[in-house]
Amino acid sequence: PMRVIALANQKGGVGKTTTAINLATALAAIGEKVLLLDLDPQGNASTGLGVPKDEREPSSYDLLLAERPLSDVSQETAIPRLHIAPATLDLLGLEMDIAQSPDRAFRLKKALAAHSGGDPQFSYVLIDCPPSLNLLTLNALAASEAILVPLQTEFFALEGLSQLMQTVEHVRSTLNPQLDILGVVLTMADQRNRLTTQVEKDVRETLGDLVYKTIIPRNVRVSEAPSFGKPVLLYDMNCPGSKAYLQLASEIIRREKAL
Amino acid sequence: PMRVIALANQKGGVGKTTTAINLATALAAIGEKVLLLDLDPQGNASTGLGVPKDEREPSSYDLLLAERPLSDVSQETAIPRLHIAPATLDLLGLEMDIAQSPDRAFRLKKALAAHSGGDPQFSYVLIDCPPSLNLLTLNALAASEAILVPLQTEFFALEGLSQLMQTVEHVRSTLNPQLDILGVVLTMADQRNRLTTQVEKDVRETLGDLVYKTIIPRNVRVSEAPSFGKPVLLYDMNCPGSKAYLQLASEIIRREKAL
Ligand SMILES: Nc1ncnc2c1ncn2[C@@H]1O[C@H](COP(=O)(O)OP(=O)(O)OP(=O)(O)O)[C@@H](O)[C@H]1O
Ligand SMILES: Nc1ncnc2c1ncn2[C@@H]1O[C@H](COP(=O)(O)OP(=O)(O)OP(=O)(O)O)[C@@H](O)[C@H]1O
Ligand SMILES: [Mg+2]
Ligand SMILES: [Mg+2]
Fold it and tell me: Do the Cβ atoms of A160 and B42 come within 8 Å?
C-alpha cells in the first residue's frame, strides 16, 4: 500500500522542504520507492532535487486541475527509487481557479486514488507544503494518512504548534477522519543554545512520544546542498545533517513496523 | 505625512517579523511615532511586543472588514511612541469573507486613508506580512508606498527574490503605481560562512544600492527576546542584533532625508 505523508507547518522557514528532500532521499536509499510531491509555488523541493526550471511541466498544478494523471507528472530524479512531481508558480492561481468547485479540498486525494495500482508504484508519497493553511495545504492534509511536523527549535515556531494541532483536529473532523500525527521532528537544533534545549524540553513534555528521538542539528552543509541541486545525503554524506536524516528515516521505519 | 512600509517576502522564516518588531522599536527610540500593523494570522509580531492573547481585540481583522477605525485597533505598547494593531487567527477567514467584494485588495488602503489626520498621528506604519502572496500581503502592498524586503542569507531565500520582484512589478502595474522598493536587508548573516558571503555578493551585484550596508547578524539574543515579549533592543540593548537594528534605522532615516 502507498503511505501518504504531508510535511506541513504554517510557520515559515522551519525545515519543511529540507526535511522532505532529505527524508525522501534517505527512504529511497534504504530501499523504499518514494514520490516527493511539491505543493509549494516557490518550488524549493524541485530546485533542491535538481529539476531545471524549464523541465517542471507537467506539474503538481496539472495534477490538481485533473488535467494530467500522476504517472505523467512524476519524473525521475538523480536518486534511484526517488521520483518528484515538480511545482511551478501556476499553483498561486489554484485557489482562484477551483474556488467554486465543491471538491476543491479533495483534488489531490482524488488524483492519488486514481493512481493506485498504476505505474510507477510508490511505497511512500511525501508532500512538501507551503507555509500557510491555504487550499494547497488543505488538499495535502485531506489526501494524507499522516502529518510529519518539522519544528524549528525557536520560540515563534513553538508558538505556532498549538495552532497547527488545532488545524489538524479541524481537518480530522471535517475533511479526513484518518489523519494521524506521524511525529514531530526538531530541526536546526543547536544543543549549546539554551533556547534549543528549552524548546526541546517543552515539546517533549507536551507531546511525549510524538517527538522523534532523532534531532536534526543546524549544519551549514545542509543549507549549502540545495545550491548544487542535491540532497545533503549526496552532497556530503558524512556530515552531521546527513547522519541525522538517515537516523530519522530508520526511526520512522522502525515505528511503522511496530504499528 | 505618514510613511507606510510593508515588510514582505513570500519565503518563510527570513526575518520579516523580527525586522518589523526591532526596526519599529529603533525608529520609535530615535523619536518617530510608529505603528506596527500585524497582518499575519500567526500573530508573532503581537507576541513579540508582549500583547497578551486575550487583549488582541479589536484586531487588524476588524480594520480590514471596515468594522473598526484604526484609532480603535491601535494600542500602546511598553515602548514609548510605538503602537501595535494586533493580529488574530480571524485573519485566516478574511479571504473567504471578502472574496466577492470588488475592493477586496484595497481594504487596508482605505482604512489607513480614513485615519490620516486622526489621532494618534504616526510618522511610520510598518506592516508585518505572512509568508505568502495572498490577499493579506496584496492588501499590504496596495496600501504601502514602499516594500522593505528582509532576505535571509540562504540559497532558497535568494531563489525566491526574483519571484518577489516580479510580484512587486505586477502590483505596481495593477494595484499601486507608487509602490517602491525601499531596500533589501540581509538577515541572520554569519560572515564566517561561505554561503552567507556568496549570497551577499550575488545580491549586491544584482540589486546594488537597494541592499542596505547594514547587515543583521545571526545572534541568539535576537531569537530569545520574543519569549519575553520584548524587542531585542529592550531585552539586551548591547548585543550585536540590537546594534545592527539601530544602525539599520539610522541608515533608513538617512536615505529618507536624502530623497
Ligand atoms: N539542519 C539545517 N541546518 C542548517 N540549515 C538548515 C537546516 N535545515 C534547513 N536549513 C535552511 O534553513 C532554511 C529554511 O529551511 P526550509 O526552506 O527547508 O524551510 P521551510 O519550512 O520549507 O520554509 P518555507 O516555510 O519557506 O517553505 C533554508 O535556507 C534551509 O537551507
Ligand atoms: N538575526 C537573527 N539572529 C538569530 N535568530 C533570528 C534572527 N532573526 C530572526 N531570527 C529567528 O529566526 C526565526 C525566523 O524569523 P521570523 O519569524 O522573524 O521570520 P519571518 O519571515 O517573520 O517568518 P514567517 O515567514 O513565519 O512569518 C525566528 O525564530 C526568529 O527568532
Ligand atoms: Mg519550503
Ligand atoms: Mg513572521
Answer: yes
For chain A, what is the mean pLDDT? 96
Contact B224 A47 (CB under 8 A): no
Distance of CA B184 to the CA centre of its chain: 12
Q: Tell me the three cell numbers of residue B48.
A: 513579540
Which residues lie closer than 8 Å to B229 by C-beta, 6 or more apart? B47, B48, B49, B50, B51
CB B213 within 8 A of CB A186: no
**Length of chain B as a residue count:** 259
Closest residue by Cα to atom 16, ligand 1, is A15
Among B5, B196, B145, smallest CA distance to B204 is for B196
pLDDT at B259: 74
B212-246 as b/e: b if 16+ CB within 10 A: bebbbbbbbbbbbbbbebbbbbbbbeebbbbbbbb
Between positions 37 and 56 of A, the ones with CB within 8 A of B are 41-42, 44, 47-48
Query: Which of B14, B16, B18, B242 to probe ligand 2 with, by most ligand atoms within 8 A of CB?
Result: B18
Yes or no, beta carbons of B159 and A10 under 8 Å apart:
no
Whether residue A196 is predicted with pLDDT greater than 80 in this model: the reply is yes
Burial of B207 (0-12, 13-18, 19+ CB in 10 A): middle
At B26-57, the pLDDT tens digits run: 999 999 999 999 999 999 999 999 999 999 99
pLDDT < 50 positions in chain B: none
Q: Closest ligand to A13 CA? A: 1
Which residues of B are less than 8 Å from A195 in CB distance? 220, 223-224, 227
Task: List strands edge to edge, sheet with B146-152.
Answer: B75-76, B82-85, B34-38, B124-128, B3-7, B146-152, B180-187
Cβ-contact A142, A174 below 8 angstroms: no
Helices (H), chain A: 16-29, 44-48, 60-64, 70-73, 94-97, 107-115, 135-143, 155-174, 194-207, 220-224, 232-235, 240-258
pLDDT over 90 at A100, yes or no: no
**Structure confidence by residue, pLDDT tens digits, A177-186:** 999 999 999 9
Where does the pLDDT of residue A99 fall: very low under 50, low under 70, confident under 90, or very high at 90 and above? confident
Q: What number is the average pLDDT over the span A33-42?
A: 97
User: CB-CB: which of B11, B131, B223 is closest to A155?
Assistant: B223
List the single residue in A131, A159, A224 with the smallest CB-CB distance to B195: A224
Q: For residue B118, what pLDDT is reported?
A: 85
Cβ partners under 8 Å of residue A199, min gap 6: A151, A153, A154, A155, A157, A158, A186
